[in-house]
Amino acid sequence: MEIDLRLESSLWVGKKRYKAVLTGWHFQWTEVDKNNREKKTTSVPVSELIGLEKGQVEILPRKSVEDTDKDFTVFYVKRSSSGGSYGLLWQFGRIQFSCASRALRDQWTSHLRAALKTHSPSRPHRLLVFINPYGGKKKGRHIYHSLVAPLFELAGITSHVIVTERANQARDHLLKKDLSGFDGVVCVGGDGMFSEIMHGMIGRTQQEAGLSENDLNVTLQPCHLHIGIIPAGSTDCVCFATVGVNDPVTSALHIIIGDSQPLDVCSAHHPTEPVRYSVSLLGYGFYGDVLAESERHRWMGPLRYDFSGAMVYLSSRSYAGVVHYLPADPLLSSPRDNTRCLSGCSVCSKSTERLFPHSTVSESVHSFQCSQYRSDRSEAGWVSVAGRFRCVSFTCMSSSCPRSPLGLSPSAHLADGTGDLILVRESHPLGFLKFLHRHTSSEDQFDLPFVEVHRVKAFRFSLPPGEEEDSLEDMESEAARERENQESPQCGMDSETKSRTGSEQQLTDRAKVGYKPRGDWSREKSLFCGPCCTEAPAVSVWNCDGEILPFSEIQGRVHGQLVHLYARGIEDKAACVG
Ligand SMILES: CCCCCCCCCCCCC/C=C/[C@@H](O)[C@H](COP(=O)(O)O)NC(=O)CCCCC
Ligand SMILES: Nc1ncnc2c1ncn2[C@@H]1O[C@H](COP(=O)(O)OP(=O)(O)O)[C@@H](O)[C@H]1O
Ligand SMILES: [Ca+2]
Fold first, then answer.
1. What does pTM read for this prediction?
2. How close is the Cα of 61 to the center of ligand 1, in Å?
């Protein structure tokens, strides 16, 4: 039986009288003056109420309740127009109403609670929170305890908090520990920490489904737990691109109200390595080199990327390779259609219907996607491009971030089952600088003769014929053999570098850092072996959402809407703030 949630009465805020109306979906209050004229109305969707309490309640600086019997306090999401040039900042709104009687107060609180239950069914009650205490400016713990935990408490959310003590602790926990009772997982950290959590969640889901995630042909099962991101890292691109701002309170409010944003994920495969996943950036060449270089300067905090970016730019490298890609349907969207994926995006909604044609996801989705991908795997429809590239980048979304407010690919979609492949060919250094600089403005970075962008479902990158990647073991033994035969140093470097043979150099180039999780933060080998060294490395590494993949040849495939975030995409500023 449907409960009638409608309620209307006069309420007071201080000395001002308001006409308050609960329609079921909305709660609104309008100031009424002495002549019964209605003034400004504030309307809040019930789904955006954070909570309510009887009495006069303050939560800042600390929660205090004065249990008056005619008052109740409502907490709600309030949008602010001062959220920077891109998304909308959400703030915590609080209003304290007084009623004519205690009975009316109880009627309001019970109706509002019932409306919340009915219209906000997907709110989390119990969350597993991982804090990386070393991410970004090392403020994760403080951000969570001072800004986020009080809001969770107010909203009645209980949380189990784990402050990590090592890299990959969160991933391992998600892979092995009992997760029953949790509605979602919260990541307090940057893109690397998010990536760790995403790997744990995707891995766990496939384990439970009995699927082999390393198999490129397997259709992965979407994860059922949502992930919330409290930005506390260096780039925080996943948060920025899915919420529109990097603000812990805004993110906490999206988590509290149980927002849901599906996200495409690209799996990156190499024959001898475990699968890796990426949402923001799979980048070879410039972005791979910047990451490898930046690991040596972690002490600089987020600035390490700017410093390393400048260093790598000055080294002016390009790398040979062959890129194959499987184009997505050009009738659905294009990376140069000048559209933006905003909250409620119709391209993404249509993709949901295409990717999950029946409302009961599981088997139907599985078989549909499998057959679709199997036919894609034939060479039919694949396109190849060979050459020397300054960078080969792939992103499943715009990858906007404070450094680049419109992102690597401004018209990419969060959840359309495709990604954008950006190929930047060898070019004059000033041309490349122009390309990079355009990321910081609204000028079109693809409108340059040496840049191409393709919307794709899958891609692979290989080294040129004859220079294909050997297995690292082969290279190691070859290097050892060469070392035995060779005595003369290559140039006047330090003794370790001097004794490096051709294969060793190549080995170092390819596996520059070995396959270590970035969080180990061990001393990496510099990309710059010294002014005397004129020979640039022949190969680069991949930057996989801030993690180094120590190999060159990969195959990537987009898995549409594989994970869900507590977010709603970028809200259209014009539509939301009056
Ligand atoms: C002359 C001005 C040049 C400005 C170039 C700006 C280009 C910025 C593009 C940024 C794309 C970011 C994609 C996201 C990558 C993150 O996953 C990764 C890890 O983040 P985190 O864990 O929070 O540290 N960040 C990077 O790889 C940084 C790339 C910076 C390149 C300059
Ligand atoms: N306690 C820890 N000690 C060292 N590394 C950690 C720890 N917890 C997480 N990490 C790792 O730190 C890396 C970077 O974290 P992140 O939060 O993304 O910061 P940043 O944005 O500054 O790179 C992640 O790859 C994660 O695996
Ligand atoms: Ca996408």
1. 0.86
2. 35
